[in-house]
Amino acid sequence: MTQAVVGDTVRFHFTGKLADGTQFETTTDRGPLDVQLGQGQLLPAIEDALVGMTAGEKKSLDVAPTDAFGERRDDLIHIVGRDQIPSEVELTVGRRLTASNANGEQIDLLVVAMDGDSVTLDANHPLAGMDLVFELEMLEIL
Questions:
Q1: How far is C-alpha 112 from the chain's CA centre?
Q2: CA distance readout (Å), 17 to 14, 25, 92, 100, 135
Q3: How much of the chain, in percent, has pLDDT values that exceed 70?
Q4: pLDDT at 101
Q5: pTM exceeds 0.85 for this model
Q6: What angle do CA 70, 49, 64 make, to 5 degrees?
Q7: What share of the chain is helix, strand, coil (3-state, %, to 5)?
Q8: Where are the domains of the chain?
Q9: Can you name the CATH fold of 74-122?
Q10: Looking at residues 16-38, what average pLDDT do you find?
Q11: Is 137 a residue whose pLDDT tops 90?
């Protein structure tokens, strides 16, 4: 059987889980992904695992934080004044916000605490610091 190589476009399903088995994403309910290998569209660990797979093959992959979304970083936790957030934005703990940095890049933020006139925002990826498990199923090499 033909094995996937860098440069191939592949169609596959994946399911992402936390180490405790909690599922955080899957393609099985919305349709497979088509990705050209070697274009950096996936986490490198997933892309590396797809290389060499054949149609119909399944694989489970454990991915450490350093190979996924990185470790949690304290420098990405910011305490700001409530007056720095537009007044029309309703703030509640757990709410996700989007802001722009000095370069105009979008930053996703999570409201993690509110205390008087201050708001604590976390810019870490929601999966940062977590061990992940990906179940891959190669459907076909296109």
A1: 19
A2: 10, 7, 27, 30, 8
A3: 100
A4: 83
A5: no
A6: 25
A7: 10, 45, 45
A8: 9-69+128-141, 74-122
A9: Thrombin, subunit H (2.40.10)
A10: 96
A11: yes
* Tokens standing for residue 94: 């757990």
Distances (CA, A) of 101 to 75, 98, 109, 119: 15, 10, 11, 17
Q: What is the b/e burial string over 64-77, where b = at least 16 CB atoms within 10 angstroms of the residue's CB?
A: ebebbbeeeeeeee
Q: How far is CA 86 from CA 71, 96, 104, in A?
A: 30, 14, 17
As its CATH architecture, domain 9-69+128-141 has: Roll (3.10)
CB neighbours of residue 108 within 10 Å: 14
DSSP 23-84: EEEESTTT--EEEETTSS-S-HHHHHHHTT-BTT-EEEEEE-GGGTT----GGGEEEEEGGG
Q: Is 90 exceeded by the pLDDT of residue 93? A: yes
**Encoding tokens for residue 32?**
């497979």
